[in-house]
Request: fold
Amino acid sequence: MRRRELIAAAAVAALPGVLSATPLDKVKSRGALVVAVYNDMPPFHVKGAGIDVELARALAESLGVKLSLLPFSADENMDDDLRHMVWRGHYLGFGPADVLLHVPVDRPLMQGNPQVSIFGPYWRERVAIARRLDVLPTLDSLAQLAGKPVAVPGQSLAGWLLIGAESGALRDTLQTKWKDGVEAAQALQRGDVPAAAGMLSELQSVLRGDERFAIEPLPSPRAPKDGWAVGMAVKKDATELAQALQGAVNQLAASGQMAAIFAKSNLAWRPA
Reply:
C-alpha cells in the first residue's frame, strides 16, 4: 500500500472516534469549561466577580477542569443571546460557550429555541420593592406610594410596572435615573427616598439584614406572581454535559455550597 493510501486509511480509522466525541468529552479534553455570563448584572456578575462567577467556578471544578469565563453584553432579546452564546457564536467573532448562565427556565423560550437545552434552575427572581419601615410600615397597594419619591431603574421591568401603575399616578414622583436596582437600593439606604424597586436579588444584595427596611414582592397585578426561575443553557446535542451540570447543581444545593455562594452576595438562597 502506498504512503498516501496509508495516511488516508489511518484518517478513516480515526474518524469514528472524532465524530463520537461529545461536548462533555471536548470540555475534558480541552481542560476548561467555557461559561458565558452577562456583563453588568449585579449581584451575579460585575467586573469578574459575583454569584454567576462563583457558580461557574464550582461547575468547572465539578467536571475536574478549569474555568474559562466568557463575559458578554446582552443583546436585544434572549433568543439572540442563546444564538450568539450557545449554539452558533457571536457575529463579533467570539463564542459559543459550553454553557450560558442566567437563562430563564421558561417553556415558551424553550419551544422557540429548539437548538438549545434549558435546565438547572438555581435562583427564582422576582420584581420586588424595598421600603423604610418608619415611613411605610405596610405596603398593601401601590396607591400608598402616591406623592412619595421611589427610586427605580427606568429601563427595567420594575420601572415599566411602576410607570404604568395606578393609571400613571406615580409617574411624576418616580426617580428613574438609576442604572439598576442596586443603585436604587443604595439611594434608599442613604435616605434619599422612602422606597426603591428592582429585582429581588438587587435589593437583597444591598439591604438584606438591615432591620430598617422591608423587602417584598411588588404589589402589582401585572408582576409575575411567583417570579421566574433562572438556570443555564447548552446546545441541544450536549446531553451528557447537561446531565453532568445538572448533577453538579444538585450536589451544590444538597451540600449547602449553593447557599454559601449566594450568601457571599447577601442573598438568601432557596431552591428555585
